[in-house]
Amino acid sequence: MSEPRRLLAGLAPALVVLGATLAGLPLDNYPKYVIAIAIVSIVVGASLVVLVGLARCITLAAGSVMAIGAYTSSLLAIHLGVPYLIGLAAALLTGAIAGWLIALPGTRFRGHNLAMVTLVFQSVCIILIREAKTLTGGAEGIHVPAPSLFGWTVRSDGDFLLLIGVLSALAVLVLTVLVRGAFGKNLQAAAGNEVAAEAFGISVPAYLTAAFVISSVGVAFAGALAAPRVRILDPESYGVMASIFMLAYPIVGGMHSIWGGLLGGGGLRVLPEFLRPVADYQELFFASLVIVVVMFFPGGFVELIRRGVLALRGHPAGPREAPQPAVAGAQAAAAVTPLPAPDGAAPLLVVEGVDRHFGALHAVNAAHLTVPVGGIHGLIGPNGAGKTSLFNIVSGFLAADAGRVAFDGTSLLELAPRDRIRLGITRTFQHVAVFGQLSCLDNVIIGRGRNGVLAAIGQSVDEMRSGPLTARARGEALAALDAVGLADLAGMPAGALSLGNQRRLEIARAIVSDPRLILLDEPVSGVAEAEIEELRALLLRINAERRIAMLVVEHNIPFVARLCRSLSVMGAGAIVAEGTPADVIAMPAVRQLYFGEDVAA
Ligand SMILES: Nc1ncnc2c1ncn2[C@@H]1O[C@H](COP(=O)(O)OP(=O)(O)OP(=O)(O)O)[C@@H](O)[C@H]1O
């Protein structure tokens, strides 16, 4: 996408909100009111896209969070005479606290358990507001004074529309930057595949907490914006039905883009105006709409519009993978052979005396192995031998009971998986773990490993204006994609690639951070026979050109034998043989253990 188009795409949702505001100003009072309330719902919808769409966390607490924003700004104005803008800022703060409080238990649960957690928060909040009568006016409600800013008292419907429209456009702009930028992409990665996300420096709990906080800040802000316009605040308006209605915004609009929030929030808020003749059946209509969307258009209105546009352009099927690109050098695959082991290469990864029990089962028993700098070491063994357990201990996804795992002298056992990338260790996965909804380019950018929450927020701002961080990240990622022959597919959603290309994408993601060691977990599992030799050539080329060491767990013995310079064989949790592939595979004990051959015969 060209730079002006990228900027315009980032600004477009906020411009639509401003456009709706300007279009509403000449209208009568009632349409002005409807548009103002619809714009507030757009802010709610866009905020919920962050939590419900990108982070895939269900919430039934949006009503209470909106109430928290509304009551914060209003009570400060009523009881302390706090100016409107400071009240709005306070609503952002209480919204953030509410999001953080929900996240404390919320990040540990998913699905119906999370729904229950948020429902409890919702109920407790509404009960507290109702019972704190002297402060909040209780169930009877409390009158909110007209806000005033810099001497301008906001009274008329036009004034309210202008105020709400401008501030909402700002909120939508901020949310757009976050959703479209590195923060939104990393959040989708965290929600899509926690293990892969953690392996590339994305702290899943930190991102989910940030999603709860950002989403709650947006919803509370919307509550504070709307409060003076609705004039009387009462707790029942923010009850569980309101929460359910708000949850429908991203579901109906579309969960993965800010436009879903706009279409869902704005659309569902305006729809009742068109349903007035059948007002008694409104709720039935809404329920049916949600069911129809979930069943037939899980991508919501956004998906429906996208399909329509593609159909008009004559591409009804959406993005498709182009014919398989040739990997540079693949033609010469058969000629690529492992280099001899680097003479006297220093040990890079050292595993010593590692133990792991599962109950009475001794799954890893005093295991040891060494991968030298620039070496390619294979780990083989029959099913259940303990290879995956040992691999997971090395990659940090399984704790060891005893032993030592050191990388270039640094002990790894105390490090979280996401911290290993900083040392220069990356990995691929037995079951390919690309982030399917993100483009190949974004998958590889995540592989750079600079994925802390604050860094991603900074990167999101940089991406909006295509600053130097973005240019560098894209340049490095494109180079890595080029190295594996996928540069032409950079913009393609990773989930649309063939399995062989997803394996290559994983390799690009693993090499982009310039690691010193890649842990390859069954790299040719499920790959078509014809592509295995290409992948072997690719790995050998990467090893030779970038001097990246590799530890490979694999069942495909011919592949391992032609890729690796040294092998360890596991049997019943222990390392039972090691040496060059030719020597190891020729050992009678290994043939018996691995291939079940009768050595005595
Ligand atoms: N989380 C777990 N809980 C209990 N037992 C486990 C667990 N993970 C592995 N095991 C057991 O530990 C032993 C070693 O399993 P592991 O998966 O490490 O072997 P493997 O060599 O990788 O096998 P495969 O090649 O089939 O993947 C097996 O008996 C397995 O059933």
From TrEMBL:
<dbReference type="InterPro" id="IPR003439">
    <property type="entry name" value="ABC_transporter-like_ATP-bd"/>
</dbReference>
<dbReference type="Pfam" id="PF00005">
    <property type="entry name" value="ABC_tran"/>
</dbReference>
<keyword id="KW-0067">ATP-binding</keyword>
<feature type="transmembrane region" description="Helical">
    <location>
        <begin position="58"/>
        <end position="78"/>
    </location>
</feature>
<feature type="domain" description="ABC transporter">
    <location>
        <begin position="349"/>
        <end position="597"/>
    </location>
</feature>
<keyword id="KW-0472">Membrane</keyword>
<feature type="transmembrane region" description="Helical">
    <location>
        <begin position="160"/>
        <end position="179"/>
    </location>
</feature>
<keyword id="KW-0812">Transmembrane</keyword>
<dbReference type="InterPro" id="IPR017871">
    <property type="entry name" value="ABC_transporter-like_CS"/>
</dbReference>
<feature type="transmembrane region" description="Helical">
    <location>
        <begin position="84"/>
        <end position="104"/>
    </location>
</feature>
<dbReference type="Pfam" id="PF02653">
    <property type="entry name" value="BPD_transp_2"/>
</dbReference>
<dbReference type="GO" id="GO:0005524">
    <property type="term" value="F:ATP binding"/>
</dbReference>
<comment type="similarity">
    <text>Belongs to the ABC transporter superfamily.</text>
</comment>
<dbReference type="InterPro" id="IPR051120">
    <property type="entry name" value="ABC_AA/LPS_Transport"/>
</dbReference>
<keyword id="KW-0813">Transport</keyword>
<feature type="transmembrane region" description="Helical">
    <location>
        <begin position="199"/>
        <end position="226"/>
    </location>
</feature>
<keyword id="KW-1003">Cell membrane</keyword>
<dbReference type="InterPro" id="IPR043428">
    <property type="entry name" value="LivM-like"/>
</dbReference>
<keyword id="KW-0547">Nucleotide-binding</keyword>
<dbReference type="InterPro" id="IPR027417">
    <property type="entry name" value="P-loop_NTPase"/>
</dbReference>
<feature type="transmembrane region" description="Helical">
    <location>
        <begin position="284"/>
        <end position="305"/>
    </location>
</feature>
<dbReference type="InterPro" id="IPR001851">
    <property type="entry name" value="ABC_transp_permease"/>
</dbReference>
<keyword id="KW-1133">Transmembrane helix</keyword>
<protein>
    <submittedName>
        <fullName>Branched-chain amino acid ABC transporter ATP-binding protein/permease</fullName>
    </submittedName>
</protein>
<feature type="transmembrane region" description="Helical">
    <location>
        <begin position="238"/>
        <end position="264"/>
    </location>
</feature>
<feature type="transmembrane region" description="Helical">
    <location>
        <begin position="33"/>
        <end position="51"/>
    </location>
</feature>
